[in-house]
Each structure stands twice: as structure tokens, then as C-alpha cells.
């Protein structure tokens, strides 16, 4: 794989500000994780997204570029969180398609997710990526420059999640009568509660028996109580991203409970559960902005 030089791609507007920049934050974290000697996840494409976008100029993409190492709240602890999340969700997706014979994968708010290119999918898998057109355009330009080839059939749907993405999926080849696996990674806490409920209900409606869903939620009653946490403070000071200005601060719905009431089996975990399972990752700390984060895994029983 050749290096991608830093350049103006002409499509970087999708990741130049607001929530779009957080996709670059996750990409930088995945790049750092990839180069750790005890790496939990490998994403050889991640650093190229960071290097290609003016908005992320000067950000680290390797552990040696982080002056404070793992002591740095942003590029140490927070980056390790994203590395752990990537590994856990990678495992979930692959387990779902192999164990359940599922061949439809839907990434809602796909961002700079390169799973269609880097995971070993079984034959016949189709990965649907839904995100804003300018985000996907930036991703395509970077991946095309690397001559990257997906390892599954890949169907990008350039559209805002506020549009009728559910209506567009069948026209793109999605079959609601066949089981599917859904991933909603790092998205819901940016949405108003009603939009989150609509998204969860829509996934339920489009999912036949045997389908699976993973999503990330935040349970804090008052997110602003953590404004001076090391994680939020370092993110604001080092890269100018105020996550609390981007999050929707309204009380969150109980989406896991809603799925359970609809017949799904659900499991709710803290990230720290997986830190203990894998032997590396973030652990709880005082004034912890990760304290309310939950990773939810749900399965819809077959008839």
C-alpha cells in the first residue's frame, strides 16, 4: 500500500467541521491502535484518511507521535477506547455473519469505516454504507488513491440519515425478508431522542428473524457534569473539538429496553467489561466521561 500524501481532495468538506471531524478523530485513533505492539484492531486505511484531510493536519497516527504516550487523555486513553470499540464491533459483525449465516450488513452513519475493505467476509456478503454524500466522497477519493478493493460487495448510499434511508435500502438491493446485521457506531448520542427512537424502530421493522444489531449509547443524566473531565478537556484543547457541543444533551431513550419489549434479546455492557476481557483498554477513573457509555448487542429471534 502506498502512502497517501496530505492533500486537498476536493471532497474534504464532509469531514471539515462539526460531527464530520469526529470521523477523523476515530480514524486517527484506529491508526494509532494499528501501530501499537499490542494492537487490538488493524486498520491500514485509517492513517490515510487523517493524512488526506486538512482538518486533521498534524494529528498523530502512530504511538511514537504522541508525546505523553498512553498518559495523554486524548491520544492515549480515548484513542485506546476507540481501538477497543473497533475490535469488539469487528468481532460482533464477523460472529453474526458466520454463526447466523447472515449476508446483509448495514452500517448506519458509516463515516470512514473501512470494514468492507479490511475484514474477511464470507462469500455472498453485501455491506451497505449509509452516510452523507460528501463524507462518502472523501472516503472514496482516499481509498481510490490506494487502489483499495473491498472484500465483500459494497453498496454506498450517499444520504443523510434524516432522509428516507429505509425507503432507499430495498432499491439498493437490501432484502427485508432476509436476516441482516446492523451497526450503529458512535452515532446515537448526536441525534435528538425522537430520531434515535425512529432509527431503532426502523431497524426493527426492516429486520427479519435471525437479524442482529449493535449500537453505542450514553446513559448519563447530565452530560455537562463531565465538561471538565480530562477526556473532554483534552479533546477541546488539542484538536478544537467540543464533543459536548455536538452531542444532543436531552435525556436519552431506553433503546435497549425498547428492543427487549419488542422481542429482541439484548445484552448491555460497559466498555470496561471488554477491557478486562482483552486485557487492555481504558479502565474507570475519576470524573470519567466514559462512565455512562454502553455497548448494546441485540438479536431478533427466528420465528
Count of DSSP strands: 7
Annotation field: number of helices = 11
Shape: globular
Gap between N and C termini? 46 Å
- For this structure, what is the CATH homologous superfamily? Vaccinia Virus protein VP39
- Bin the strand percentage: 5-15%
- Poorly predicted parts: 1-10
pLDDT averaged over residues: 94
- Indicate the structural class: alpha/beta
CATH architecture: 3-Layer(aba) Sandwich
Number of domains: 1
Question: The biggest beta sheet, please?
Answer: 7 strands, mixed
Write down the secondary-structure element order. HHHEHEHEHEHEHHHEHE
Q: What is the top-level CATH class?
A: Alpha Beta
Strand order of the largest sheet: 3-2-1-4-5-7-6
CATH topology (level 3) name: Rossmann fold
Q: If you compute it from the alpha carbons, what radius of gyration comes out, rounded to the nearest whole angstrom?
A: 18 Å
Q: Helix coverage percent of residues?
A: 25-40%
